[in-house]
Design a protein that fits this description.
- The chain is built from 7 helices and 11 strands.
- The chain is of the alpha/beta class and about 260 residues long.
- The protein folds into 2 domains: about 60 residues, Beta Barrel (Ribosomal Protein L25, Chain P), CATH 2.40.240.20; about 180 residues, 3-Layer(aba) Sandwich (Alpha/beta knot).
- The strands form 2 sheets. It has a 6-stranded parallel beta sheet with strand order 8-7-6-10-9-11, with helices on both faces. A 5-stranded mixed beta sheet has the order 1-3-4-5-2.
- About 35% of the residues are buried.
Length: about 260
């Protein structure tokens, strides 16, 4: 069944309006007509099954049934990604959204290859937001991950103190000589916090650029409260690391266990 996200002011208690590009897609691509049923969400967790009443220049539908939010993960995991070159960030956003990322926090780091251009930031964030929306629709999520403004390294360090758990993916930790793997670190942390009625924890997964983090950055992140963790014995591309780390975290949260 086709799924759409709409703005909160288009989502009433009994009626939903689909406008703009989504309406064009529904009417011209999907050939939506009166009587068809759709799933619509406000992008913040509220989702409903609706029945189309009008299908003209926009789609007007009546709420048939409110649906639960079982498609959202138990943990709120933000991928903090140092800006990669080319269109790699688009892949991170798309696949991270599909897998279950709560939000994305792009930032600048010392070995970043791409030349950051603040003038282009708004356009890129808008592009990433569109990709996140489309990926959330495709994966049947009930919310769209937020994509924050590009942070400086100092701003990212400040963010570490505001979450329940921060993990910095550091190449050194993947080697046997050091060997603090993400799974062991998360299990130890999770065992210390388990409560039947505990709210969803906020987790920050920090991924470096193509050249990795410097030793100084790793030390500063650790001093700010982050755990340095490895993602195995192999060297992963920057656009792969966040996806692997996110999957590991969701596994440890119980996401893959089923009912």
């Amino acid at each position: 069944m086709q799924r759409y996200f709409v703005a909160a002011d288009q989502f009433g208690e009994a009626e939903v309006r689909i406008t703009g590009e989504d309406a064009h897609h529904a009417l011209r691509v999907m050939r939506t007509k009166a009587g068809d049923k759709l799933i619509v969400s406000d992008g913040a967790g509220r989702t409903a099954l609706v029945c189309v009443r009008e299908a003209q220049s926009e789609v007007v539908a009546d709420v048939v049934e409110w649906l639960g939010g079982k498609s959202e993960p138990k943990w709120n995991i933000t991928i903090a990604q140092s800006l990669p070159k080319g269109d790699k960030m688009e892949l991170v956003v798309q696949k991270g959204t599909e897998i279950g990322a709560f939000a994305f926090a792009p930032f600048q780091s010392e070995r970043m290859i791409v030349q950051y251009d603040g003038k282009k930031e708004a356009k890129r964030i808008e592009r990433w937001g569109k990709i996140a929306k489309e990926a959330a629709e495709q994966s049947h999520r009930s919310r769209i991950p937020e994509i924050g403004a590009v942070r400086t390294w100092r701003e990212l360090l400040a963010l570490i103190g505001s979450v329940d758990l921060a993990l910095l993916c550091y190449e050194r930790e993947g080697h046997a000589a050091h060997g603090r793997g993400i799974a062991k670190a998360v299990r130890q942390w999770n065992a210390s916090r388990q409560h039947a009625d505990a709210p969803p924890p906020n987790v920050l997964l920090i991924v470096g650029p193509e050249g990795g983090f410097t030793e100084r950055e790793a030390e500063e992140a650790e001093a700010a409260g982050a755990l340095l963790v490895g993602l195995g014995n192999r060297i992963l591309r920057t656009e792969t690391a966040g996806i692997v780390g996110l999957t590991c975290l969701l596994y440890e949260s119980g996401e893959m266990e089923g009912e």
